[in-house]
Design a protein that fits this description.
By secondary structure, this protein is α+β, with helices and mostly antiparallel strands. 25% of the residues lie in helices and 33% in strands. The strands form 9 sheets. The protein has an 8-stranded antiparallel beta sheet. The longest helix has 22 residues, at 443-464.
């Protein structure tokens, strides 16, 4: 049983995820989007999409889109309006099915203070807490200040001593008001060595309830999860049963219907667990549960919303192996995990090992400041936890990424760390284990990847050549110096000198011999001194991103010709300021004489003709007429004429 049409009131990877399952169930999918997402993949994935003039929080516009497209149900995903009880009620009042729990359950669990009271009524263990600041001494330090509404780390502060309490409460109130429109906070006991463990629940409209085991989500930065797994390395069968039963007791009090998550804090030393909150929606980390149980949670949500029964009991749930999810973000771990922006000039998941990529972006996607900088959730499943960790780390390392700073290297180093592999994953993991934020390439690796980059550039130049394109790169009828390419990688610089030999092989300045087995726009298959690799290469302006055996390394290609004092280059023409190319008079292969005007640049409302400083042949043209260019950009290059 399924809906004829479903509106997804969300964006990004979760919208794509919902579309995937809904379509498999025979349901037509309708998306909504704002202007900033006009080119996002989820928009084209849908059968139909409606543009919102305001935001994803515009309930009236979303309901209007549902009516206009004939959608019979609304799936809110997570975030935005997913835990908004008023919106859930509006959906029902409009005669549409709400894919989620009843508005009453959302409202009860939306307030953390009332949620804790209901948990206590259901005999679920809770941490000592109070909304009264004067109770701080009774609770004891350190303690947490937490927002009564919302989550995701907003409005949360760890307070070490009484002297910091007043300032922490004031800051938490401001953050809570800005994030949730509600500045209420409360104090709660803080457990230093703790784990964040949550139980996935499912309930239908016929009173059937099951739990699908636990997920551990302890590795967090700024109180936000980045690595999740199922099962938890700390939870054994007895503890799983106890936590599962506690979650189901609370779910029965709520008469819970749909998918939800009961979150607990697990004291790593004592094994005690305490209620934190209920998320009345699908969780970001739901794929790990799907992979260990074989149950599609989106499918179950949609079935329950149609009135179907679960069709299975607790005794029917089986757990298979281990699953780990890593959240790949556009952010800089070396700069306190601050979000990063830019354009994904390279985005290519590796073919192997086989893992699940839930992503809302593609190559060329612009990463801005409007939304969460999540690029993808990458999930590995294997018979053992150690194998799943290794599989996930390798899949991340082998992905081809560039154009935006990401936390990829941090994730790989975390997954390969001794602490993670030992299951020592309490909430203080990052501060304690201090995983490296980047890959460390040796000098030998940098040189090898630079040589690979040089050979790829050589192939690109041959493909673009309009004159003597059939001749080997660097061919002359006389003896001349080796070709040279200078590549910068951060603070390191590599100068690659090379010469093509008669048999088609290439000899580098250090004596290494290379043989190119295949070249394409996306990469190169090359053997250097007997070591062969298939490297992906992406070029964006002067940037070359090379994915070698141990990950990506980004180089900046220096212009072949250095600027002369007069502003011309020795054969190269570099823009001295930003401007527009209004007259391009040459093409690759043209012969020019000293003094010839090769292009005219308009800048600062003035025309600036650029003239050849000596006789030569145009070897590169990097601009087109009408193109706006930045100062410092290499426009074209002329190779000086040489006597035979």
């Amino acid at each position: 049983m399924s809906f004829d049409a479903l509106l997804i009131a969300n964006r990004g990877e979760i919208a794509r995820r919902i579309i995937r399952t809904a379509r498999e169930m025979g349901t037509r999918c309708v998306a909504v989007y704002v202007e900033a997402d006009a080119d996002a993949p989820f928009v084209s994935d849908a059968d139909e999409a409606v543009r919102l003039e305001t935001s994803y929080l515009d309930a009236a516009a979303i309901l209007a889109a549902a009516r206009a497209t004939g959608a019979a149900a609304v799936h809110p995903g997570y975030g935005f309006l997913s835990e908004n009880a008023a919106f859930a009620k509006q959906v029902g009042d409009a005669g549409l099915a709400w894919v989620g729990p009843a508005p009453e359950a959302i409202e009860q669990m939306g307030d953390k203070i009332s949620a804790k009271a209901l948990a206590a009524k259901a005999q679920v263990p809770t941490l000592h807490s109070s909304p009264d600041p004067s109770a701080a001494d009774r609770i004891g330090y350190p303690l947490l200040v937490k927002a009564a509404a919302g989550g995701g780390g907003k409005g949360m502060r760890v307070v070490e001593s009484a002297g910091a309490l007043e300032e922490s409460i004031a800051a938490a109130k401001r953050e809570a008001l800005g994030g949730f429109g509600d500045d209420r906070v409360f104090l709660e006991r803080y457990v230093a060595r703790a784990r964040h463990v949550e139980i996935q629940i499912l309930g239908d409209a016929h009173g059937n309830l099951v739990h699908l085991g636990e997920r551990e989500c302890s590795i967090q930065r700024r109180h936000q999860k980045i690595i999740e797994e199922s099962p938890s390395p700390r939870v054994d069968a007895d503890l799983r049963e106890a936590m599962g039963e506690a979650a189901l007791r609370l779910a029965r009090e709520l008469d819970y219907r749909s998918a939800g998550t009961v979150e607990f804090l697990l004291d790593d030393d004592s094994g005690e667990f305490f209620f934190l909150e209920v998320n009345t929606r699908l969780q970001v980390e739901h794929p790990v549960t799907e992979l260990v149980t074989g149950i599609d949670l989106v499918r179950e949500q949609l079935r329950i919303a149609t009135g179907a029964t679960l069709g299975y009991a607790q005794r029917d749930i089986r757990f298979d192996g281990s699953a780990i999810e890593a959240r790949l973000y556009a952010e800089d771990p070396a700069n306190d995990f601050l979000p990063a922006t830019g354009t994904l000039v390279a985005f290519a998941p590796a073919d192997t090992p086989e893992v699940r990529w839930d992503s809302g972006v593609t190559r060329g996607s612009a990463i801005g400041t409007d939304f969460d900088p999540l690029l993808a959730k990458v999930i590995a499943h294997a018979p053992t936890r150690r194998e799943a960790a290794g599989k996930l780390a390798l899949a991340l390392a082998r992905a081809h990424l560039g154009g935006v700073v990401t936390n990829r290297e941090f994730l790989v180093n975390t997954l390969r760390s001794e602490e993670f592999l030992a299951g020592d994953t309490t909430t203080d993991f990052i501060d304690r284990a201090k995983p490296e934020c980047s890959f460390e390439f040796s000098e030998e690796e940098r040189v090898r990847l630079a040589q690979i980059a040089a050979l790829w550039v050589q192939g690109a130049n041959r493909r673009e050549a309009r004159v003597l394109g059939m001749a080997p790169s660097g061919w002359r009828n006389g003896r001349l110096p080796d070709q040279k390419l200078v590549l910068d990688a951060g603070e390191n610089s590599v100068t690659v000198r090379y010469r093509t030999l008669r048999d088609g092989s290439v000899r580098f300045g250090d004596g290494a011999i290379a043989r190119i087995h295949a070249w394409s726009e996306d990469g190169i298959d090359v053997e250097i001194d007997g070591r062969r690799a298939q490297a992906l290469v992406t070029r964006s302006g002067a940037e070359l991103i090379v994915r070698g055996p141990n990950g990506d390394l980004s180089f900046t290609e220096r212009p072949r010709f250095e600027l002369r004092a007069g502003g011309d280059a020795a054969g190269g023409f570099v823009a001295q300021m930003s401007g527009k190319v209004i007259d391009l008079r040459v093409k690759v292969g043209d012969r020019v004489r000293a003094g010839d005007t090769v292009l005219v640049l308009e800048a600062m409302k003035m025309e600036h003709p650029m003239r050849a400083s000596e006789d030569g042949v145009v070897r590169e043209v990097r601009v087109s007429e009408g193109e706006q260019i930045e100062g410092g950009a290499l426009l074209l290059a002329i190779e000086p004429a040489k006597e035979a």
